[in-house]
Specification:
By secondary structure, this protein is an alpha+beta fold. It is built from three helices and eight strands, in the order E-E-E-E-E-H-E-H-E-E-H.
């Protein structure tokens, strides 16, 4: 359940990447295997250290895209009251893999996905690369997994390939639900 009205100061965070190698499983059994005691879900330094965010989804979790693993990617969603803007960031993952932990404006993601939704195009995760400032090749794939999660539900896998995506039929409704977090923090 999302934690509402939790204040987060990005200046408190230290690390920008995780350094574990990704572990692939031969025969995954997709059960909830998140380990609470590990450092996989730690939060890190923000791209905009001066902003204050109200965390609206503090413990988001999405299954990675690869069919060879049942590992998850973790994320947070926050609202910047001053900007009246919604942000998202990757906070960790099971099995390792470098990724950025910087806050990304949902407006930048919507700018890309809105056009794809209008054209009903099939996209690859790399289409999300422009929302990241440098960093790991995992960023776009991990973010695509988050955008396909049940809580965000902006993307879905295509029938053609597990690594390609389309916007969901409910894209506009789900986008409105996410933006409602901003309205709730005026």
């Amino acid at each position: 359940m999302p934690k509402k009205n939790e204040q987060h100061n990005p200046n408190e965070d230290q690390n920008d990447h995780e350094s574990n190698a990704e572990i692939m499983q031969d025969e995954p059994h997709c059960e909830d295997n998140h380990k609470e005691e590990g450092d996989e879900n730690k939060v890190a330094k923000s791209a905009s250290p001066e902003i204050q965010l109200d965390i609206v989804i503090a413990d988001g979790k999405a299954l990675k895209l690869s069919p060879k693993t049942c590992n998850h990617v973790f994320y947070e969603v926050g609202v910047n009251r001053d900007e009246q803007a919604l942000y998202i960031r990757l906070t960790g993952n099971e099995g390792g893999g470098l990724h950025s932990k910087r806050w990304i404006a949902f407006d930048d993601i919507f700018e890309i996905l809105d056009e794809c939704h209008k054209q009903q195009c099939i996209i690859k995760s790399t289409l999300l690369n422009p929302v990241f400032i440098g960093g790991s090749q995992n960023n776009a794939g991990f973010m695509a997994a988050v955008l396909r999660s049940d809580d965000i539900a902006l993307l879905r896998k295509t029938e053609k390939d597990i690594f390609t995506h389309q916007t969901t039929i409910e894209y506009e409704d789900n986008k409105a639900l996410l933006l409602a977090y901003v309205d709730g923090h005026k």
